[in-house]
Design a protein that fits this description.
Layout: H1 5-15, H2 19-28, H3 33-42, H4 45-51, E1 58-66, E2 71-79, H5 82-85, H6 88-104, H7 109-114, H8 124-135, E3 140-148, E4 150-156, E5 161-168, H9 171-174, H10 177-193, H11 205-221, H12 226-244, E6 250-251, E7 254-258, H13 259-270, E8 275-283, H14 295-303
Antiparallel strand pairs: 1-2, 2-3, 4-5, 5-8, 6-7
Length: about 300
């Protein structure tokens, strides 16, 4: 019995399994849908797919740098519970995925999932699916960032917040303890204050215009005449830059200077030019819907 592309699609919709898995199952059963579902269930694939509907907003933000290659990766892998995120097997899996991203340089998460996982004969997707079946929780590789150059990473709160910063600096200077201490200060600043941009030039023009509109409306609502409102907006937009731009922010360890000034001071002390090139900040589960468990309801449903 032959099968069509629409049969593969129908099996995928019924089981939630991957296209290739569905195709293989239908090939093995000569297109028999029910037997194909049985095969997928026997392999545990359908069980993993069932778990894929559950919310995974816990997990781990993890960073890894290959000093020899001067390549770093920060990755977020989500699970359903904080307990699983602390599991050594889960952490080892995330480490393997980070190494894979360093070695293979995939374009995005979909490409990473298709890569052979570091230290394994399976793809990242297969390793993940295997772990879902063993641990019994939904898990997802949510995102990763890969940077090349002189890097510093910082992980806060056991994988709750991760930061990776790229610097333009002489490699001999980058190897000094003084620079490493400075770089960590910058990474911790990003973790604590969560800037959205590196500097003023990085803020998109439409974002600035929108902010000016809001600030103008605020000033007018305060009863200020148009010419005064305009001056107030220019002052307040400066405050906006100090909030969202890293180099404009007051330095957390010394509020009398900006981060930009701290960079300049350190460059002078070390006798070398230092430039902040870019940064990435991940906060675990940000923007994801969290699962709200009601213990009383859970117990009641179990008793039923």
């Amino acid at each position: 019995m032959a099968f069509t592309a629409s049969d593969v699609k129908a099996l995928r919709e019924r089981t939630g399994c991957g296209m290739m898995d569905c195709k293989k199952a239908l090939s093995q059963t000569d297109g028999d849908m029910d037997k194909a579902i049985e095969i997928l269930r026997e392999k545990g694939l359908a069980a993993a797919a069932k778990k894929a509907t559950r919310i995974a907003a816990e997990g781990l933000v993890y960073a890894l740098v290959d000093d020899a290659k001067k390549v770093g990766v920060m990755i977020e892998v989500n699970a359903e519970t904080d307990f699983v995120a602390k599991n050594s097997d889960f952490v080892a899996m995330v480490d393997s995925f980070a190494k894979t991203a360093i070695e293979e340089n995939p374009a995005d998460v979909d490409a990473l999932l298709k890569c052979k996982a570091a230290g394994s004969d399976m793809t990242v997707e297969e390793v993940l699916r295997d772990k879902i079946l063993v641990i019994g929780e939904n898990m997802k590789v949510r995102r990763f960032a890969r940077l090349e150059g002189e890097l510093c990473t910082y992980i806060h709160g056991g994988g709750r917040i991760g930061v990776m910063v790229k610097f333009d600096v002489d490699s001999a200077v980058a190897a000094k303890d003084e620079f490493k201490s400075f770089a960590k200060d910058i990474a911790m600043q990003i973790a604590a204050v969560a800037p959205q941009y590196l500097n003023k030039e990085d803020v998109p023009a439409d974002v600035v215009e929108k902010e000016k509109e809001i600030l103008t409306a605020q000033a007018m609502n305060e009863g200020k005449p148009a010419n005064i409102a305009e001056k107030m907006v220019m002052g307040r937009i400066g405050k906006f830059y100090k909030e969202v731009c890293l180099v404009e922010q007051p330095f957390v360890k010394d509020g009398d200077i900006t981060v930009g000034k701290y960079v300049a001071n350190t460059a002078k002390e070390l006798g070398s030019e230092i430039k902040l090139v870019s940064f990435v900040r991940f906060e675990k589960g940000e923007g994801l819907e969290k699962r709200e468990d009601n213990f009383a309801d859970e117990v009641a449903s179990m008793m039923k």
